[in-house]
Amino acid sequence: MNSWLEHQFKLSERKTDVRTEVFAGITTFMTMAYIIFVNPDLLSKTGMPFGALMVSTCLAAAFATILMAFMANYPIALASGMGLNAFFAFTVVLGMGVSWEVALAAIFVEGIFFIILTLTKLRESIVNSIPMSLKYGITAGIGLFIAFIGFQGGGLVVDNPATLVGGAPLKDNLPALLTVAGLIVIGALEAFRVRGAILWGIIIITVVAIPLGVAPLPSGIVSMPPSIMPILGKLDFSYVGFNFADPGVANFWIVVFTFFFVDFFDTVGTLVGVSSRAGLLDERGNLPQAREALLADAIGTTAGAVLGVSTVTSYVESAAGVGVGGRTGLTALVTAILFLLAIFFNPIISIVPSCATAPALIFVGVYMMMGVTNIKFDDWTELLPSIMALFAMPFAYSIASGIEYAVITYAGVKLLSGKAKDVSVVMWFLAIVFVAKEIFIG
């Protein structure tokens, strides 16, 4: 088995081993396991059955993550994307009145477009054409974004109508106190070079949270999963056409484009950011196997639509596994196996509270921000676009928005400073597309 794993995932070449990869896979799963329950909760608002959605969420995540493991050999997990699932439920179905069957068809069409673009190498060209300074900025921006999500999930940052966000008081706030305690525990374990420090931190805080009433005792160990037949293959392609005078057809393509745009640049940002921290970029700053990674993501999206769930995309929480040493597809494979087991062991998985995973996300956010020191601080034409990516991602709560602002700023500042020749054709193309998108769509 060890020899097969070595041959398949090139463990020694990437300076890792089976034990490290297993720890990394478990850690990635623990930090993104919330999707097993959050995704069905959101999508069920459309009238889709919760139980079927939970099973399909796990199956889609496992399938796409296995593809990533064997096609690209990257430690990146995939699942139905947060934000995209809310857009599916509240904007498309409940807001625009599009049936969930038609919305799933839109996601399927989006995935087909992704597959075609990936096979033509357009997506790969875009990933590899991003300048190194922006790649560092995107990586750091994703880190700040992940940390912000952790602060929210741990109850340290709350909504404030006057200032958008505000700090939560720690007094009598057990979840927030446990979040701080978890961060201290992970930091101390990491200082002592304990392998799997993040995973141990999650387990310790979960155990402590149970007697404090913050996490419940498991209701059992194993449960049989519900059937996915109510949502399996229920795609409605009746509005696929080009008669834009028909409101249904027009809305369908608006939905397709919106899913396409957000998913495209979320995936690009995640691949660049996580791969950069894992040391997987080559000497030119390009991402080897980018085509295979993007293809796994695209096929995962189409398969997810058939299974009955919203857009499947690469997860920034994969950085948690990278943070504990994950470097190969074995990390992803372990995560995928755990998603399959979760279908049967969800009573245990469901007790892990957000205050246990929040410290892991904050710690990983710090880890991913370390590359900010590689940005050229003495060149404003490189610094400003990179900082735009860094700040915009958490403040706009969108990886795609961060990339958009950064690319427009990069092209604009290079042009006005007389360094237009530094901008590649692909970057000019992206800048024009982003400007046109804001003018005509918003």
Structure, described:
This protein is 65% helix and 3% strand. The relative contact order is 0.21. The chain has a two-stranded antiparallel ribbon. A two-stranded antiparallel sheet has the order 2-3. Helix 16 packs antiparallel against helix 17 (399-416). The chain contains 18 helices and 4 strands. The chain has 442 residues and is mainly α. The mean pLDDT is 89.
Helices and strands in order, then pairings?
Blueprint: H1 2-9, H2 18-32, H3 35-43, H4 50-72, E1 78-80, H5 84-93, H6 100-119, H7 122-129, H8 132-153, E2 157-160, E3 164-167, H9 174-191, H10 197-209, H11 247-277, H12 290-307, E4 312-314, H13 318-323, H14 329-349, H15 354-369, H16 380-396, H17 399-416, H18 425-440
Antiparallel strand pairs: 1-4, 2-3
Helix pairs in contact: 2-14, 3-4, 4-12, 4-14, 6-11, 6-12, 8-11, 8-15, 8-16, 8-17, 9-10, 9-15, 10-15, 11-17, 16-17, 17-18
